[in-house]
Amino acid sequence: MSIEMIEEGVINHQAETNQNKLSAGHGDYEHHEDYSKKSLMAKWGLLFLYCICSAVGTIGGPLLLRLYFLHGGNRKWLSSGLQTAGFPILVIPLAILYFKRDRTPCSVQFFASPKLLLSSIIIGILLGVNNFMYSYGLSFLPVSTSSILISTQLIFTALFAFIMVRQKFSPYSINSIVVMTLGSVLLGFGKSGDRPEGVSSSQYLLGFILSIGAAALGGFVLPCTEVAYAKASKVMTYPIVLQYQFCMALSATIFCIIGMLVNKDFSAMQREANDYELGATKYYLVLVSSAVVWQVMYIGTLGIIFCTTSLFAGVISAVLLPLTEIAAVIVFHEKFTGEKGMALALGLWGFSSYFYGSYRETKNQTKRPREDDTSK
């Protein structure tokens, strides 16, 4: 499925939700029903693609970042900047959309709202702060422990979504949040004695606090992005989402570059590469791979918000926690305890609950036009 087909389907789906009641006539309804099914399939296809991107980044990003710290990397601002420094890859899909603009007129809708641009800059700076807190915390914690703490972001996302976007909670979404939170708490019971070698108690505590802070700030950023989409003066399209991400990542990267300049990270990179345990070549490979993988994650996260809600983006991140745990066990030989197994089961249960609730809501919405039509 090409970008243009996906985008056309999503825009058609957005347009049809704003239509008034269907005109009378059995033939008109059948045409509308086929049209609605096609556009809905395109939307679900795009959402699935975004979920894959989110999974790749959510699982691979922390592993690569921890790999950097484990083998001699120690630059906090550098590791923070890596999480958004891959934004130039967004030029590729934007260029494709631009050069095919004659066949897809909607693809040339570029930033026309200064308010939208300003929001991307502000949220980008918040994202830079969040990335620094996360990187600093991860430098003192195992991937498994850090992931557990970051999973509390779902609670903060639900809270801020309720306050900022008046998020409605169904029994299924409430069950999902409670079950996933219980999974994180359960994992916390088995976290004694996991302090990495060479990390002091005070550093471990600092990493714990910073990770919780990063979860809270991340839970605030997701609803902020949803509000920015909703307040946009024009309909949010796929190209505009990419541009929004580009500006947001650029702002976050500039924020981290300033920190790198103050901390003299650029001058220390060559020395750090020479002393890296895996060699200088693999040092730079880790940096580049980390930047690309993290950017793929942001493509997925912002895309999920574009297609659904910030709460659903938080649910996707939470359900990927146990998978990150398993990946850490395989790559870094961290222990896989019974608590982690239970957390995996609870995470899948919570995700299934939320997904089923969304399916029921979508199914009910598609039935309403027919009920309105038959009631005439």
UniProtKB/TrEMBL annotation:
GO cellular-component term (any): membrane
Annotated localization: Membrane
Membrane topology summary: Multi-pass membrane protein
MF terms in GO: purine nucleobase transmembrane transporter activity; purine nucleoside transmembrane transporter activity
Pfam families the record matches: PUNUT (PF16913)
Domain of life according to the entry: Eukaryota
Keywords assigned by UniProt, alphabetized: Membrane, Transmembrane, Transmembrane helix, Transport
SUPFAM superfamilies named among the record's database cross-references: Multidrug resistance efflux transporter EmrE (SSF103481)
Keyword Iron: no
TM ranges: 44-65, 77-96, 116-136, 148-166, 172-190, 202-222, 242-262, 283-305, 311-332, 341-359
Coiled-coil residue windows: none
Similarity comment text for this entry: Belongs to the purine permeases (TC 2.A.7.14) family.
Protein name: Probable purine permease
Organism whose genome encodes this protein: Macleaya cordata (Five-seeded plume-poppy)
